[in-house]
Amino acid sequence: IISILGISVLTIEPLLIENSDWEPVEAQIIDTGVSSMWCGDGWWDECEDNGHFPTVEFSWEIDGVNYVSEDYILYPPNLSSDSKANQWLENRGIIIGANITGYVNPNDNSEAVLVKQSWLEIFWKNDNAFFSLPCLFCNGIPIFLFVTARRFESFVPKERRKRYKLERVSNNSWIAPIEATELQAEARSAWLKKKHGSFTEKEFEELSRLSGALDSSNDQTPIERSSYTLLLDGKKEMEIKVSSQGDLLNKISNIDSDSFIMYLEDSKSKGRQLEFNFLGDRGGDDYLQIRELIADQEIRSEEINVEKNFERIFSFIKEALDNANNDEDWWDES
Prior knowledge:
The protein has 334 residues and is of the alpha+beta class.
């Protein structure tokens, strides 16, 4: 009886989350990469680090509603190197910008994957197969198996991951609900506190800086202007439309230019502006210079270590936005 109980409990989770019957849907690859860490969603899932896990961000559309997810597979493979991880993605046609067949949960359009896994694959991937082996030889250790079975009853999540529908703000841009970004920030903070003792001081500082940068990029605080003009390499003007501070920071981060100016006022070069200059490598780290100017007069300037102080870029931009807004308020009062 205990053998049956133990094996049954260990197979509950794979049966609940397997997706072999999900239905095809057209998906588009937004981004790919490789991460050294992967964390599961189960109550007893532990984070794996020092690995090479392929990562993917993709989108799909159903009934006019767009969805975006990074959960392209339930249990990603841990490859031997970054190049092997990238090759694994390429072999499956998972390339940035590519259209690919995904698989959507027929009961929840907001849940989809790019790689399906059967309950047997999940059973093996999450190590339940190893835990079930003692059940075959449990005559001498019934108490141990009973405790193991009770432990794994808690392994099954109370509910599947909570998803949020994104709000379309342009043809290729969406924003997440404020509640979703707040929960993400809380989860990162809680995870950092829980894992504080597992990292060196340097590693913890780097993770804290990264968490701060993510919080800034997800900031849904409304912004005074709906669009800004950029001057790329002193030649070409382009306009970016934004919906929040986080949206603005993300779009600036994706500008493919070593030198550009962001005009914060309608007067453009005659008003307040930010000048960005990529300074290149210094001692193994990349540096970026940001200058805040009013017309030709420099107000302040900083050279920022992108590798070690990335979040300072965001805070510098926010400070300049506040300065520009204060200027407008002062003129309005007068």
